Amino acid sequence: MDHFERIEAAIAGGVTDQVPVALWKHFPVDDQDPAKLAANTVAWQRKYDFDLVKFMPSGTYSVEDWGAKSAYDGAPNGARKIVQAGVASPSDWLGLRRLDPASGVLGAQNAALGSTARELAGSVPILQTLFSPLTTARKLAGDVVFDHLRNHSNALEAGLRTITDTTIDFALAALAAGAHGFFLATQCATTDDMTEAEYARFGVRFDLEILAAVKAKARYNMLHVHGQNVMFGMMAGYPVEMINWHDRLTPPSLAQALPRFSGALVGGVAERDLLVTGTAGEVHAQVRDAIVQTGGKQLIVGPGCVVAIAAPEANLRAAVDAARGQKTD
User: Could you give the angle at the alpha carbon of 167 between the alpha carbons of 164 and 168, nearest 5°?
Assistant: First the structure.
């Protein structure tokens, strides 16, 4: 099987020649330069030959053209931190303008993806990273977004309208640049932050607009549900082919999720701890446990979230080898 066939068989719950696997990580500092981001992505893929490429722009790319500023402060996962919000008061949501996806920071991300797609020449699926509109709003304003949600809902909804339209424009441009689909990340679909009714109003309807807009052209999409105590039941109903969450940190387990989602489950690897401090043998055993939980079907071995940049090569190799049925030395 090639990478596309293997991913599609996993999505369909069919038999694969080996369990598909994909790991992804940030390339801090280099992710600010489109040429360097593309070069790092291509090198990462060629080194491990993953079954899909989860493209890794900076986690703050979606808000910087609206005035938010970010910096890399050495975070273990390689993520940048917002150091200046783009939205301070409820009225600021009304002033957001629809962005041009071909210019600024947005344009740079699809330029990098386009370079990557040309270099990989259709050999592997590439998923551009999108953030759900409410997640982008949270990145723009910080956690004050939840006060705006509850006490200034009309203003926030106006902002979400603009964010959604911009995200759709960016997504369509990504498809034109060579993306095969999307990794749609929500960082708010957790009861630690809001109720399911609140997420239905301020999250779901905008998320589904994006998925509907790309449906005709995207080959497949993955939903990432970030955090603990996630709204898995609600998220499992999204029209996506793959779903990813921190299965080693929060329910449901892979085995529990299997009957609740019709596509492929992406997970099995504890990206924060074991992959960094464990032995290669322990990582290998964890991946094999994921395969046992699912019977090796409807599974793509992957991290619950971005891989820590300090993860040693031996452990990364162990995860890949375990998925491919090879022993770890």
Answer: 90
For residue 328, is it within any domain? no
Dihedral (CA of 37, 43, 47, 49) sign: positive
Q: Residue 102: name the closest of 92, 114, 94, 93 by CA.
A: 114
Residue 206 lies in a domain: yes
CATH number (domain holding residue 203)? 3.20.20.210
In a domain, 329, yes or no: no
- From the list 129, 61, 108, 124, the residue with the least C-alpha distance to 306 is 129
pLDDT per position as a tens digit, 190-243: 999 999 999 999 999 999 999 999 999 999 999 999 999 999 999 999 999 999
Pairwise CA distance, residues 234 & 122, whole Å: 33
CB atoms within 10 A of CB 208: 13
List the structure tokens of 157.
Answer: 């909804």
The parent domain of residue 259 ranges over 3-323
State if pTM tops 0.85. yes
